[in-house]
Design a protein that fits this description.
The complex is a heterodimer of chains A (114) and B (111). With 114 residues, chain A is mainly β. Helix content of chain A is 0%, strand content 51%. In chain A, strands 2, 4, 5, 6, 9, 10 and 11 form a seven-stranded mixed sheet that branches. Chain B contains no helices and twelve strands. In chain B, strands 2, 5, 6, 10, 11 and 12 form a six-stranded mixed sheet that branches. A four-stranded antiparallel sheet of chain B has the order 3-9-8-7, with no helix packed on it. The model of chain B has no long low-confidence stretch (mean pLDDT 94). Classes of the chains: A mainly beta (114), B mainly beta (111). The interface between A and B is medium-sized, with 26 and 24 residues.
């Protein structure tokens, strides 16, 4: 089982460049998330999508856009990268239910903006 | 709003020592509680979970009990191994649509 797959695993961008981080899950989950992880700050939610066609801002949405292309895929776009966006980005998915299930995470994308 | 507070790290222990990582939470509803582990260069993996008060989650020798009266979910292991070196995150969800994570506790186990 692939679970949650993120691409790319590593990326170096120059300030002002754009890129899209891809995420796909094969567990038929309704909810998907993008987090960033920075030293000493844990995980911070950028955007989430409760279902296909819907997206909502999280704690740190500025500088990012997302697209829930279909139930499987949830992409994160940086339109004009800044050094402050140097981070590790994680995509996750979950299937809310009566006994709330856990979130499943991808392996992460390590992004450096120079 | 909902939140999780966990023990600051880093924590360094000798092999076979007892481990406790404290986690307390604030939630408006009835949360499910989780411990995740992150090994170097990897994503987060679920370690254990508990979905209601007094439940005990356990896996790989780790345990945590959902204590509603103290709003806590402390992680324990009786005898740590070098292979347990990782970052541990406490987390909760009340809706299944939003997860709240602690800042993580780095554990290093030395032989």
């Amino acid at each position: 089982n692939a679970g949650v797959t993120q691409t790319p695993k590593f990326q170096v961008l120059k300030t002002g460049q754009s890129m899209t981080l891809q995420c796909a899950q094969d567990m038929n989950h309704n909810s998907m998330y993008w987090y960033r992880q920075d030293p000493g700050m844990g995980l911070r939610l950028i955007y989430y999508s409760a279902s296909e066609g819907t997206t909502d801002k999280g704690e740190v949405p500025n500088g990012y856009n997302v697209s829930r292309l279909n139930k499987r895929e949830f992409s994160l776009r940086l339109e004009s990268a800044a050094p402050s966006q140097t981070s590790v980005y994680f995509c996750a998915s979950s299937q809310p239910g009566r006994l709330n299930t856990e979130a499943f995470f991808g392996q992460g994308t390590r992004l450096t903006v120079v | 709003g909902d939140s999780v507070t966990q023990m600051e790290g880093p924590v360094t222990l000798s092999e076979e020592a007892f481990l406790t990582i404290n986690c307390t939470y604030t939630a408006t509803g009835y949360p499910s509680l989780f411990w995740y582990v992150q090994y170097p260069g990897e994503g987060l993996q679920l370690l254990l979970k508990a979905t209601k008060a007094d439940d005990k989650g356990s896996n790989k020798g780790f345990e945590a009990t959902y204590r509603k009266e103290t709003t806590s979910f402390h992680l324990e292991k009786g005898s740590v191994q070098v292979s347990d070196s990782a970052v541990y995150f406490c987390a909760l969800t009340t809706t299944g649509n939003q997860f709240y994570f602690g800042t993580g506790t780095s554990l290093t186990v030395i032989p």
